Amino acid sequence: MNQGSGKKVQEHSTRRLLPSLLSSLLALGLHAGVAHAAPAPTEASAESAPADPAHDPAALTAEAPAPLPAGAYQYEISLRELGARFPIRLAGVDSSNTVRFSTRADEELLGARLKMDYAYSPSLITELSHLKVLVNDEVTSTLALPKEEAGSQVSKEVELPPKLVRDYNRLNLQLIAHYTMECEDPLHSSLWANVSNDTKLALTVAPIEMPNDLAILPRPFFDARDVRRLKLPFVFAATPDNATLEAAGTLSSWFGALAGFRGAQFSAHVNAIPAQGSAIVLLTGGQRLAGVDAGDITGPTLQMVANPNDPYGKLLLVRGRNAEELKTAAAAVSLGTQTLTGERATITKLEPRAARRPYDAPNWLRSDRPVRFGELVATQDLNVAGYRPDVVNVDLRLPPDLFAWRDKHIPINLKYRYTPRPAADQSTLNVQVEGQFLRSLPLLPETTGAYRRLHAPLSEAEELIMMPVSLAGAHSTLQFLYFYDYVKQGECRDVIIDNVRGAIEPDSTIDISGFSHYLAMPDLSAYARSGFPFTRLADLAETAVVMPDGAGELDLAAYLTLMGRLGESTGYPGTAVTVTQAANVQAVADKDLLVIDSGKQPLTREWRERMPANLAGESHGFSISDLMARSFGWLSPDPREREVKTRAEIAQQTRGASNLLTGFESPLKRGRSVVVVSASNPDGLEAVTTALMQDRYSGSRISGSVSLVRDNQVTSLTGEHTYYVGSLTIVESLYWFFSRHPVLLLLLGLVSVVLLAVVVYFALRARAKQRLQA
After folding, report:
1. Are residue 333 and residue 377 in the same domain, yes or no?
2. Which parts pass through the membrane (predicted)?
3. What is the CATH number for 273?
4. What are phi and psi of 144, to 5 degrees?
5. What confidence score (pLDDT) does residue 398 get?
6. What pLDDT is recorded for position 644?
7. CA 284 to CA 254: how far, in whole Å?
């Protein structure tokens, strides 16, 4: 049959079926009308009638959720954790904002939902306005903006199809908004929507079995795609000795450096493998763990095996025939992960690296030369687009002991580009430090002589900005905000063209090489935020950790977590840290001491008179000063303002729990520092380490010489004694000395005047004598 005859048959069949279809539809309409006119059933009959799932719409739509496969679980991440520091504001006819998220390599995504909290303008036209949710530029949902919910907080859940989610993803929120059916201002103030950064992304995932291959390190123990806090167990076959703890400290500081902003928390297990997940196992000599068949070794050895308690978990075995080989194996993991491969590797050679120099931590701003912005931020993150673009953030980690007396400034050579303005207007580039205004730079029109670049798509400019050190802390963020003035063309002629761009040049520099390093101590804020003074050397070569005698699992966990915090600060593993006990503390007198005390540390009793606070059994003693009334002094660049006299000494007998951070000068050597992490019982150590991780981004609640941690609250005090670490130039030393001793400066001035007068007197007398003799 040819195509033409087939078409005729189809048309004939349609004509025959059309009357029957119309009659059927008419019958259904009459039936629906009868049903609508029928009296409603009484309440009694409704209760007595059995439920019929076939005729119950609720029963048809309410399907039971499918059970999750074995090992699957759900977790939530807020937009704040994904980098949205503030609520997302969408303004204008067509505006959008992007948040990035990722999924772990060892997990399969089963489902994703966005639990949104948002509000929008009451002036929007419902029929024309909506909020779009996109994943990787694919629309997943469109939310209507009805009048009855306008102006109030709205909560809705949006399903994100797993097929659209990849390893690294862009979650985009786009507002399409209109307030009139006629000509409108595309940037009218009534066109807005706010999405809370407490909005949560809920992910359902199932674990994937990974190969036993050292080449995938640091996965699965740490995955850079996971923005959650790293929680990693360490396993010891027996109570570890100091050398084993030094190797474990190298590894935990390395993982802490990898975790970065996420934070890292470690637990310790003696002769017990975790029931679930992955763990690090350290074995020396002939030590073995039940269920783990590791075989014999011939040198420092690394091996990845399955967790016998969890088919999806892995164990990284770090082994050595003696303590030195164990430390070599740990250093090989932390320094040479990229070269490892296979299920098992024996380290035959590990050349020691050159000794670290002070202040050369990879995460810290270099002190020996200007630093390019391109070294601190990826180039693509320095570019923005649109009339209301995102903020360009440049994170800075400054050494906390920069000597900035008399408010010395940090020079920033800023180079930037922008779409040339058609005429002079109010467009600016605003520069801020941690939200504090610094400078406002005008974005000039293309025809302005100094800024004109022939045939250049963007105007280029350069500016020297002097940033006060008082605005910059140990952790600071330079913020660059482009504000483009929108010039209105007239009624019905205003159209936004997406051709506005801005960029901060990667060749822009910041320079702290002209600063000396000198700081008044004790200063627990420097320790809480930067690990100072221990992190002065990135490999912790001048750091000794004094463990309590008979340390238990909670003491070991506190040690590992504290080492992770130091690694997070420097970005480098603590390969040269020393671990000791109170009995051998004299051997490390020339080091800065980090003392862990859970009620069993002899040094806290021995050094009680030198400490501004102490926990000794049920006896708790504190020195109280004016820190709370003069807290600004601890933020001042002038170290003199840190000298706050003690106003009271308080001692008490109590059975209550107390958790402290205490700083003071080492009784063993002048200029060296001691930080004591103490708790009245081992459980309290976790409260202190948690407070340290929270303090990293919540502001310096930990400060002074004593910080009391209780119920997630931190109270800071300061003692009387002040000492200094670091050094100054000869000129700075003289200025600093006489600024602290003005009376001596006055006396020296008077003596100088008298001496000058005497010299002038005898010179004039000699001159007069010569003239008389002539």
Report:
1. no
2. 743-764
3. 3.30.379.10
4. -70, 155
5. 92
6. 42
7. 20
